[in-house]
């Protein structure tokens, strides 16, 4: 009898908490404006969740040797690539020694942290996981579809050095990177000139529908289309993609074949000069994965 009372009390407490949460949400009581920081308990909860989640998922990642130490590797090139990628993709939000983040970053909540202390807070494998996969509930994007394995690790090793830089050292290091580019990869580790032995999931051989589903979210396809299996706010910009495999034609009058669909995804304006569909910079591998997913939507 006592056990039953405890269960009923616990159930009542859960229902009460759910009802209170529903009231707060429906009444609009929680202020979502970025002009006001999260409440400290909310911020602390998110920070703790991130810490434990990253540590769990990064624990089996094998860290490659730094390019400067690897036999036959070009350490100077690795350093330039790390600095170049940081300058192009990281500096705007995280700043650096003597360099403030861009104004748009300073207006974000939660605030992107300075990375000068990152090496003291995170292991290299954890920095790699964060850089590759990004962080939900923050503004940190995933870079796995935009940087090759070599560049992901080059960024990690560069971030590890930030605490050793003076402002003058930092400025000189970025300047030494010159016009080194940090381009979108073609989706293969073998194409990278540095750190060819990657950790934790380089591109697998052959198209994969599940990778395609995840890639569609990373390339922002769900910003315009409602896609089965991909979370979105039910946008109305482009047509919903349910039943895509049953369609006989693609835009521009192309037959709905895998080859034509890949061509359309990578160069929409080349197929139909009047389309509003932008080129998203898909690598060939990512485009094939997306084709594999779309052709399953019946």
Task: List its salient traits.
Immunoglobulin-like, 46% helix, 298 residues, mainly alpha, 13 helices, globular, single chain, Cytochrome Bc1 Complex, Chain D, domain 2
Counting structural domains, the number is 2
> SSE string, helix = H, strand = E?
HHHHHHHHHHHHH
Q: Mean pLDDT, rounded to whole units?
A: 86
Strand content: under 5%
Q: What is the fold named in CATH at topology level of the largest domain?
A: Cytochrome Bc1 Complex, Chain D, domain 2
Biggest pleated sheet: none
Look at the helices and sheets and give the structural class. mainly alpha
The CATH architecture of the largest domain can be named as Orthogonal Bundle
Low-confidence runs: 68-73, 187-203
Terminal-residue CA separation: 53 Å
CATH domain class name of the largest domain: Mainly Alpha
The Rg value, from CA coordinates, equals 23 Å
User: Tell me, what's the shape?
Assistant: globular
Instruction: State the total count of DSSP E strands.
Output: 0
Specify the number of helices: 13
Helix content: 40-55%
What do you see in this structure?
This protein has 298 residues and is mainly α. The chain has 2 domains: 53-191, Cytochrome Bc1 Complex, Chain D, domain 2 (Orthogonal Bundle), CATH 1.10.760; 209-294, Sandwich (Immunoglobulin-like). The chain has helices at residues 2-26, 40-58, 75-89, 91-94, 103-106, 118-121, 124-133, 149-161, 167-176, 209-218, 258-266, 268-271, 284-294. α2 (40-58) packs across α7 (124-133) and α10 crosses α13 (284-294). The chain is globular, with a radius of gyration of 23 Å. Residues 68-73 and 187-203 have low confidence and may be disordered.
